[in-house]
């Protein structure tokens, strides 16, 4: 199995045509299954395109695609998502799923069914979050952080190693204690806790909160 995630958390990177071609070549004439995490499928910036495994027949036939209603409709606390795969794979997934999850409650299912009939409820997500990405980036221009490009999702990476020798974990803890700003050290995403000198910022907040958070980070 190969596990992929695009748009990617935490880096904000997005698969392009070249990535799809490489993945197709890598899996051709194999029995490799692809698990594709596409929960940020509607959050791609700067006119970019989300390349779902479902849109590429050679990959669709071997892919399990997971996505999230919570991310799409701003209700992450509801914890409802969905899975798509070829019939043979779905048969096996259902065998496991029936022992892991009893049910999704009826009101949520009706709510999402209604929302899906209104494409405008999610087609504006890219513009909505791009405005927040740009607002945060502009507000941090005079900070000492080096901001790394975010092409999708609602996360942005910020490098601090140019002005601090702290581990990213220690730096994130200090930000909470001194600046009252919560970030995620990038090492949390590594199995071995590799120190990166980078933290993850989220811009899925109201604009006033983003401005105030940036103001505090500019003082670090």
TrEMBL record:
CDD domains, per the entry: AAT_like
InterPro entries per UniProt: Aminotransferase_I/II_large, Kynurenine-oxoglutarate_AT, PyrdxlP-dep_Trfase, PyrdxlP-dep_Trfase_major, PyrdxlP-dep_Trfase_small
Single GO molecular function: methionine-oxo-acid transaminase activity
Cofactor(s) this protein requires: pyridoxal 5'-phosphate
Ranges of residues in domain Aminotransferase class I/classII large: 1-217
Keywords: Aminotransferase, Pyridoxal phosphate, Transferase
Pfam families on file: Aminotran_1_2 (PF00155)
GO cellular component, as recorded: cytoplasm
Alphabetized Gene3D superfamilies for the sequence: Aspartate Aminotransferase, domain 1, Type I PLP-dependent aspartate aminotransferase-like (Major domain)
Superkingdom, taxonomy of origin: Bacteria
Keyword set includes DNA damage: no
Keyword Hydrolase found: no
EC number: 2.6.1.88
Name under which the protein is recorded: Methionine aminotransferase
Gene name of the encoded protein: ybdL_3
């Amino acid at each position: 199995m190969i596990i992929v995630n695009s748009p990617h958390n935490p880096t904000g990177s997005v698969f392009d045509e070249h990535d799809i071609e490489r993945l197709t070549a890598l899996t051709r004439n194999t029995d490799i299954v692809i698990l594709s995490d596409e929960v940020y499928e509607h959050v791609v910036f700067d006119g970019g395109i989300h390349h779902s495994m479902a849109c590429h027949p050679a990959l669709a036939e071997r892919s399990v695609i997971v996505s999230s209603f919570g991310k799409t409709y701003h209700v992450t606390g509801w914890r409802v998502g969905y899975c798509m795969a070829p019939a043979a794979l779905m048969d096996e997934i259902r065998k496991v799923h029936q022992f892991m999850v009893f049910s999704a409650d009826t009101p949520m299912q009706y709510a999402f069914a209604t929302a899906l009939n209104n494409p405008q409820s999610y087609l504006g997500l890219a513009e909505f979050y791009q405005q927040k990405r740009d607002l945060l980036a502009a507000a941090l221009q005079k900070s000492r952080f080096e901001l790394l490009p975010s092409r999708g999702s609602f996360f942005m990476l910020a490098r601090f190693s140019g002005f601090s020798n702290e581990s990213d974990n220690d730096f994130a803890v200090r930000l909470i204690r001194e600046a009252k700003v919560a970030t995620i050290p990038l090492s949390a995403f590594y199995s071995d806790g590799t120190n990166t000198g980078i933290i993850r910022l989220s811009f899925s907040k109201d604009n006033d909160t983003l401005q105030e958070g940036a103001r505090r980070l500019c003082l670090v």
